[in-house]
Amino acid sequence: MNSLENSNRFTFVRHGEADAWIEVVAAEMAQILNHDIAETGRARMLLSGGSTPAPVYQALAELDVQWDRVEVSLVDERWLSPQDSDSNAWLVRENLLKRAEGAHFDPLVRVGKPLPECVYAANLQAQHNQAPSVAVLGMGNDGHTASLFPGSRDLAKALESTLPYAALDATGCPGANQWPLRITLTPRGLRTCRQRLLLLRGKQKLEVLKQALESNNAQLYPILNAIDIDGPKLRIHWCD
């Protein structure tokens, strides 16, 4: 075992191949949701976009979960209509919600509302809903997670926010591509989640994670804000 498996900062699960990675992560998510449904009658989860988690969402939708007792929202979102195929809302809808009949979805972007109003609504909703059972995170090759991009003008403000969600302008950050305006979960919002899963694929992502851990610089590698926070240890699922 290497230092990743031995870390006391997080739990690292290494999978031999992609099918097992998908199956195990989907089963873990279903178990978390079903536990909270049994305990409180409902469950809530926050999902990320991107091609990495999409097959996990497809597999999760096929598992035995009382979807009419599940509320789904997002870790972050580009400043796009939920109907735009480049939005995280669209990806979650296509890969999970169309299969998980009865699940309730709360998008972060509300059509016709300006960005500050959307952030206000997301914070209001987060503060009045039960704590998320699970949040699914990803990580970019620049070390960002959610929409916490290194070098963005709003990063420090978002990291220090006392609210669950914040607006962020990532203009000039390569990882943001052509969508610099974002709504993102903050470290404060992450702390409210009962469990956090980081889904990674490929050797490059593993190297970025190692670089982040060695740097110990949460401004340069915002993924560290998902690792070194209070609550249950982050569970990292990786396969090549």
What does this structure look like?
Helix 2 (18-40) packs across helix 3 and helix 3 runs parallel beside helix 4. The chain contains 9 helices and 10 strands. With 240 residues, it is an alpha/beta fold. It has one domain (3-146, 190-239): Rossmann fold (3-Layer(aba) Sandwich), CATH 3.40.50. The longest helix has 23 residues, at 18-40. The protein is 36% helix and 20% strand. It has a 7-stranded parallel beta sheet, with helices on both faces. A 3-stranded antiparallel beta sheet has the order 4-8-7. The protein has helices at 3-6, 18-40, 54-61, 88-97, 115-128, 155-160, 187-191, 203-215, 224-227, and strands spanning 10-15, 43-47, 70-74, 76-78, 104-105, 134-137, 165-169, 181-185, 196-201, 234-239. Hydrolysis of 6-phosphogluconolactone to 6-phosphogluconate. One of its GO terms (molecular function) is 6-phosphogluconolactonase activity. Keywords: Hydrolase. Pathway: Carbohydrate degradation; pentose phosphate pathway; D-ribulose 5-phosphate from D-glucose 6-phosphate (oxidative stage): step 2/3. Belongs to the glucosamine/galactosamine-6-phosphate isomerase family. 6-phosphogluconolactonase subfamily.
The CATH architecture assignment turns out to be: 3-Layer(aba) Sandwich
Nearest-angstrom radius of gyration? 17 Å
The parts where pLDDT drops under 50 for at least 5 residues are none
By CATH reckoning, the class would read Alpha Beta
CATH level 3 topology = Rossmann fold
Number of strands: 10
Helical percent range?
A: 25-40%
What gross morphology would you assign? globular
Sequence of secondary-structure elements: HEHEHEEHEHEHEEHEHHE
Largest sheet: 7 strands, parallel
GO molecular function, one term: 6-phosphogluconolactonase activity
Pfam family, one: Glucosamine_iso
EC number: 3.1.1.31
Protein name: 6-phosphogluconolactonase
